[in-house]
Amino acid sequence: MEPLRSTDPARIAGYRVLGRLGAGGMGVVLLGRSPGGALVAIKLIRAEYADDSGFRARFRREVAIARQVRNRWAVPVVDADTEAPAPWLATEFVPGPALSEAVGSGGPLPERGVRALGSMLAEALEAVHAAGLVHRDVKPGNVLLGLDGPRLIDFGIARALDDTVLTATDVIVGSPGFLSPEQAQGRRIGPASDVFSLGCVLVYAATGGRPFGTGPVEAMLFRTVHDTADLSALPPGLLPVVEACLAKEPEDRPTAADIRQAFAEDLAGGSWLPGPVTHLIAERSARMLALPDIDATSLDAGGAGGPGSGSDGGPFAGPDTGTGAGNGSRETTAVAPSPGRRRFLAYVTGGAAIAATGGTAAWLVSSGDDKDPGGEGDGDGKTARPELHIGLQADLSGPSAAVGKGQDKAARLAVAEHNARDDAPFTLRLTTVDDGGDEERAKAAVRRFAEDPLLVAAIGATGTDAAREALVAYDEAALPLLSVVDGDIRHLNRIFLCARPRNDMQMLPVAEFLGAYEIDQVALVDDGTEYGRQTTRFLDAGLRGNGRTVFAETVREGTRDLDAEAERIVAKQPGAVVYGGGWRDAGRLAKSLTRAGFLGPKIATQAVHDPRFLAEAGEDAAGWLVVSTAADPASVPSVHPFAAAYRKRFDHAPPLFAAEAYDAVGLIASCAQGLGREKLTRQDLLPALRTTSYKGVSKSYAFESANGMYTGTGVFIYRVERGRFRYIGMDGREV
Q1: Identical fold between 11-289 and 320-501+637-666
Q2: Which terminus of the chain has fewer CB atoms gathered within 10 Å of its CB, N or C?
Q3: pTM above 0.70, yes or no
């Protein structure tokens, strides 16, 4: 990455620009960080193209089509603005080197690696062609290498540029040495042109050279059209497919699907990349974590304090319902976005009282067990101690209400126990906001927290989507967010602390299990979602690196005929099936695997640790192993005292993630007490949280100071027996 130049923007829309990744004829490619912390590659179009109305029209069309490309080996478009003065688009950033850099510095790839590369790139081109696109610039510089496979970049936008410049005379679009004869002659091109370019890329990957040599552009173009490719250094095993790709006439070339199928068997086995390239990718991934954090947003008195400070330009109406429970103060408020937002979401919660003033409304909810309407006592008459406020953003009325309500009750229990201590230097007050699992309500919840100058940290959210959308608001408020449910690794930013192992690291016990039982052939199935990719890609690389055979399968979320997919997977005779996806499809897959006669171990991830999986799968759930970051209150010995106190207070057993919410309150209180300050702000607390170690009832907590990610393992293993999840061990160790 190169430093920014004086002409480069510091921000593009909501993205902070960190550096230059490259430049080309139509613009510059910049590295940006989203408000949620994700790294993206931003292509910024040059002004001369932006001023061309025809280019803009084609740019709009091609961006719309490119968004339809859905393939694990094609880098997706995540954002774009085709109407900006300087149009731009953002794609997911891949920290690995380009194929050109890897081969240029480390030499050609081994034959099996080239065959695997060919199969995966052909699969990406299938998706591009199916979306109505021709890539037009398949070359080593547009192939990024990842541990789990390559990523094809720059699809779709090259089409818009080509349409513009092809109106000029004697202009050849593409990269000499990798373009097709029809490109070299300025003829009309189709998918077969990309296949020719792929053949050239495979020659380069296997030999380090171009099939039509180097030298002046005119000479390379002439050889591309008229001469036979130089394949003398190509391994014999690659020759038949590559020769077919380099046929002069488009109709004589194989399709992308033909190439994928010809090389498909080479996706199984050990790591597809040589050691030096693997080390380079790991080094660059680590370097990305050292990039600057998101710019801090100062929190002045007006922004943190009283009425009128909401970001929508109006106050939240209605009185605060401070409601002590006789055990420490608590508020529960479900907040609506203001009418000034583009999308006004009207909702009603059970028992809600509506108060409206000045065109703004808030729905206020009471739990019904509160005893201190003033919210000033700490439950035992002590009022001399200073007060600290903690927020809890949870889904109390949506799809995850069972978990959210359990978190609320557990947090209240932790507050009560803290406030009952004679040596507690401050009193805690809990403000719970119901986001209903909705993105807009989640952002409104944060604005509610930001108005309270005594609120120093928040716990939440119950749902991944709600957490992702609320991160920007948390960052603007400089308010630390501690998540015990969500482990999405894209959430890296300065205020986020992930109080559980991230999604990919949860799979370490799975690798240990497969190794302990010497299972050498594994079907690794993802559901095509980002969660599925996170939970399977590093396990895939690790298993291959240890010499195991991996059948990497994508069975997309909502696939109707799971029986056919199960039969296809079982036909490969895997020793185990590992599924990364949601509970509903896991339940359906469990039935299909049973019908297909699979008798080996079946393993699932955190999203399947849900009672709804048991109901969906029925008897076919029996024997499934599930990894989870939630400690079972009934089975994990260290959680038993909490579970007993919870049952005594609320007259029922605590649900999943209740113990973790209890721990989160304890962690925040312990960190605040450790600072030993009479007055404490959220800005004081954030750096302290990232350097605090805390032993909770469910697990021990510590964080990486640079990015707030959880350190350690903290993964629990469950086996489905007699229609329930039975705890059998932690971090790969059975009890």
Answers
A1: no
A2: C
A3: no
pLDDT digits (tens, 9 = 90+) for 111-154: 989 999 999 999 999 988 888 888 888 999 899 998 778 999 87
Non-local CB neighbours of 300 within 8 Å, separated by 6+ positions: none
The DSSP-derived string for 623-651 is T-EEEESS--TTT-GGGHHHHHHHHHHHS
Selected from 3.40.50.2300, 3.90.1150.10, 3.40.50.720, 3.40.640.10, the CATH number assigned to the domain covering 320-501+637-666 reads 3.40.50.2300
Paired residues of 733 in beta bridges: 730
User: Can you tell me the distance from the alpha carbon of 375 to that of 329, in angstroms, rounded to the nearest whole number?
Assistant: 5
Closest CA to 452 of 388, 373, 385: 388
Q: DSSP string spanning 131-185?
A: TT-------GGGEEE-SS-EEE--TTHHHHHHHHHTTSTT---S-TTTS-HHHHT
Has 163 been annotated as catalytic?
Answer: no
**Where in the chain are the domains?**
11-289, 320-501+637-666, 505-628+717-734
Cβ neighbors of 236 (< 8 A, separation 6 or more) are none
pLDDT in tens, 303-339: 333 222 233 222 222 222 233 333 344 444 444 333 3
Structure tokens at 88: 């731009």
Q: What is the CATH number of domain 505-628+717-734?
A: 3.40.50.2300
Among 8, 137, 488, 651, the active-site one is 137
**Residue 468 backbone dihedrals phi, psi, to 5 degrees:** -60, -45
